[in-house]
Amino acid sequence: MLIHALTLLVLAVLLAWPVPRLLARAAWPARSPGVALLLWQAIAVAGGLSMIGAPLCLGLAPYGDSLPEALYAGTTAGLTATPVVLPIWSFLGLIVAAAMAGYLLAHLATTIVRVSAQRRRHWQLLRLLSQPHPSRDRTRVIDDDRAVAYCLPHGAGSLTVLSRGLLDELPENELAAVIAHEAAHLWQRHDIVLVAFRAWHQALPWFPVAALAEQRVAVLIEMLADDRARAAVGDGPTARAIITVAELGHLPGDEAAGSTGPVGALGSGAVSPDSSGRGREDRPVGNDGCDDAGDGIEGSSNADVDLSQSAAVLHERVARIAAPRPLGLPARLLAVATAVALVTVPTLQLILPA
Predict the structure, then answer these.
(1) Going by C-beta distance under 8 Å and a sequence separation of 6 or more, which residues neighbour residue 211?
(2) CA 8 to chain centre
(3) What is the pLDDT along the chain (354 residues), one digit of tens a residue?
């Protein structure tokens, strides 16, 4: 299995830096955000399999030519008359594989638990600090003069939150775009996607690609929700709603579908109650408004960089609506095939004999 280990190591290196950087710089994802999101998820899954599989194959190589065979031989080694003696590099490989798998899974579990707890607290505060919308189910209205809109996933109790300022200022078609946008976040469960990428980022805060992946996935998710709004009310009202909400909200950022607080604002800088019951103004980072998704820049320049990034994302979203250029079917099929291949290659390396 040494060949498998080497192949997985090369794939892990490629998926850890050059491939994500190329995808992040490409222009085509804005033309087909759903396909691009699938590709980002494939990169994450394949990268994890390769990163953990390479040392695992190295560690189990003395037991057999494939991972299933080696696992079986390793678990029954103590029952044989001539047990295999593992060299030191096999022990090191197994330790590294177990440590990486445990570390990543632990971060994923703690992120899910923390996000779920914060959403529950936020949901309870909304019940106290907001009023039900008079005509829309599962919609709450907060008393805020700014344009604020976000959704809060909570299972059967998921909510869409709108502000008085939004309801007073937006015409009916733009308000419908906002509501369709938030409904898309809930219906398509964007929060699940971003929780996984947030866990990856928090597990590897020193790894630039982890932060880049979280930011780009957040942008693609906003574009997918924009497309749902476009289908509901048209391009013009959706673009105007994005711009209007950004201007009236005073901050050109979005809440992330899957952030620790609100989810998926159409362009507002939302004010949400924190765990103490006070309002907090969410600082936009990239496109998701998460104040814990730092960009590695310290000091007072942080806010300027964040606002610049949010303004760039806002422009990117509006520009694709103003000049739509859907990705052609051959290109979409090629991207989907690439995503499938990325996951298939490390999987086959792990299960097939050398």
Answers:
(1) 201, 205, 293, 294, 295, 296
(2) 24
(3) 889 999 999 999 999 999 999 999 999 999 999 999 999 999 999 999 999 999 999 999 988 888 888 888 877 765 655 666 788 999 899 999 999 999 999 999 999 999 999 999 999 999 999 999 999 999 999 999 999 999 999 888 899 999 999 999 999 999 999 999 999 999 999 999 999 999 999 999 998 899 999 999 999 999 999 999 999 999 999 999 999 998 887 433 344 333 333 444 554 433 333 333 333 333 332 333 333 332 222 333 444 556 667 888 999 999 999 999 999 999 999 999 999 999 999 999 999 887
Q: Which is nearest to 104 in space by CA: 203, 172, 11, 225?
A: 203
Residue 92 within a domain: no
Question: For the packed helices 208-233 and 18-25, what is the interaxial angle rounded to 10 degrees?
Answer: 30
C-alpha distances in angstroms, 65 versus 27, 78, 350, 352? 42, 19, 10, 8
In a domain, 35, yes or no: yes
For residue 276 the two structure tokens come to 């103490």
Domain that holds residue 332: 1-78+327-354
Nearest residue to 193 via CA among 219, 175, 172: 219
The β-bridge relationship of strands 149-152 and 139-142 is: unpaired
**Structure tokens belonging to residue 123:** 């949901």
294 within a domain of the structure (yes/no): yes
Q: What is the DSSP letter of 159?
A: E
Q: What is the pTM of this model?
A: 0.84
Rounded CA separation 228/237 (Å): 12
DSSP secondary structure letter of residue 76:
T
The answer to whether residues 176 and 285 belong to one domain is yes
